[in-house]
Amino acid sequence: MFWPMLAVAAGFLGLAVLGVFAVRVFVEARRLGRQVSESASRISRAAEELERASLSAARAADAL
Length: 64
What we know:
By secondary structure, the chain is mainly α. Helices cover about 95% and strands about 0% of the residues. This is DUF948 domain-containing protein.
């Protein structure tokens, strides 16, 4: 009777550990998603600034 109870307890403990790891993975995936979104918006702003700067440079080159 001891071994079946030990097996059930070990199985439950294993599932609990997997559940904790699943929650941690979910939280880290959400954090990564937020960072990717923030990086994409930064890249977009930098591209817009680069485009404006290139237009200014082109106008300056045409003036020469």
